[in-house]
Amino acid sequence: MLGTMLRRIGAATLPHQRAMRTSAANLFAEGSEASVGSKAYLPKFMDVAPSGLDPPTFQGDYGNAPAATAEDGTPLPIPEKVTFSLQLPHQAVYSREEVDMVLAPASTGDFGVLPGHVPTVAQLKPGVLQVHKTRDTDVTNYFINGGFAFVHANGQADVVAQECVLLEDLDPEMVKQGLAEYQSKASTANDDYERAVAQVGVEVYSAMQSALEKTT
């Protein structure tokens, strides 16, 4: 099971690439100079863009998305449930299922999604994803190795991840061995690539170990 989670570890995003993507997202944050500049950029883009190509959108556009409305334009009430989907490359663990709450391990800190949550896009780090079918009583804990969470204005929430396993399926001894293995690889890496792969392994196995310790 653990081997499956890390079989694509060599293709993991390197830290400097994550930093570049974060900087690009912040570039067009609402209220920034670049945000003002983007309004002037769009007409120029459409002048040279191929026919049929949609104009680009920016972070501020998503954050200011309007609330869900009925056909007559009146705002819809806050839904009683979160419509949740959890998608892996090979499987849909949840597909538009109604749940009370989702707790996700964002790279900026864990956050909860309740009905009526503001529209959000969050990068996820290795950690525990909690799905509360019924809040605090019917709860399923998954370990994910990262991904992204999308919370929409209409009450839907989507999580996409490469790998996901039930927390109870993790073997503490295998996690301990895996952490020691990647710590050793990190200390003996011969180049930046080997070092980056080892660091990702250490990050994932450390998160597994921390998650298991919290459940004991």
TrEMBL record:
It is found in: Mitochondrion inner membrane. Residues 83-161 form the ATP synthase F1 complex delta/epsilon subunit N-terminal domain. GO terms for molecular function: proton-transporting ATP synthase activity, rotational mechanism. GO terms for cellular component: mitochondrial inner membrane; proton-transporting ATP synthase complex. CDD domains: F1-ATPase_delta. Keywords: Hydrogen ion transport, Ion transport, Membrane, Mitochondrion, Mitochondrion inner membrane, Transit peptide, Transport. Its main location: mitochondrion. HAMAP family: ATP_synth_epsil_bac. Belongs to the ATPase epsilon chain family. This is ATP synthase F1 complex delta/epsilon subunit N-terminal domain-containing protein. The lineage of its organism: Eukaryota, Viridiplantae, Chlorophyta, Pseudoscourfieldiophyceae, Pseudoscourfieldiales.
